Amino acid sequence: MLSKTTSRAALASASALIATGALAVPAIAQASPIGPRQFFNGEVFGISSSTNANVIAVACAGPEATGHPAPGQYVAVRQIFPPTNATPGYTGLFGTEIDANLTWSQGTITVVTRIATFTSYDVKLPIPTSITVPCAGPGVMSFSPSPDPDGTGKASNVGVTFESPGV
């Protein structure tokens, strides 16, 4: 009889610990809405560096100067409390979304391509494989708050390098 009572008590204790969260697994970042007056970092593959350390792999055929991003690459935005580096983005007084745009130069022409629009933090969105980018060279992924009618918002810029595995 004691063993049945002990088993029931152990089961009840384990259930209570699970219900109160004492045995809970570590929390995974939950997507939270983007709103005004928030600091953030744009990220390419989880890196928010302003240097060109983030390599975007490009599928290029032969001697072509342009190609398409390889699949499986992503961008994201992460809210920060308080700003932890010298150049965070800021949503300004009205920002409720953040636009990610990829910019690079092609000779004397500057090319800007829309990549994604975020309405929540901690969501990974793919870099489209349908866009055309250089096979090699530098670029910038700019994460800009929107709307920003009064100009109080500030972009978070992440340097990237385009690189073809065949180059």
Structural description of this entry:
With 167 residues, the protein is mostly beta strands. It has one domain (30-163). 11% of the residues lie in helices and 43% in strands. It has 1 helix and 13 strands, in the order αβββββββββββββ. It has one helix spanning 2-20, and strands spanning 32-33, 39-44, 54-59, 66-69, 74-79, 89-90, 97-106, 109-118, 120-121, 125-126, 133-134, 136-146, 156-163. The chain has a 7-stranded mixed beta sheet with strand order 8-7-12-13-3-4-11, with no helix packed on it. It has a 4-stranded antiparallel beta sheet with strand order 6-2-5-10, with no helix packed on it. The longest helix has 19 residues, at 2-20. The protein is elongated. Residues 1-28 have low confidence and may be disordered.
Structural class: mainly beta
Biggest beta sheet attributes: 7 strands, mixed
Distance between the termini: 75 Å
**Low-confidence spans: pLDDT under 50, at least 5 residues?**
1-28
Q: Which percent range describes the beta-strand content?
A: 35-45%
- Care to count the β-strands? 13
Oligomer: single chain
Kindly give the count of domains.
1
State the helical fraction. Answer: 10-25%
- The largest beta-sheet arranges its strands as 8-7-12-13-3-4-11
Number of helices: 1
Question: What sequence of helices (H) and strands (E) makes up the elements?
Answer: HEEEEEEEEEEEEE
In brief:
The protein has 167 residues and is mainly beta. It has one helix and 13 strands.
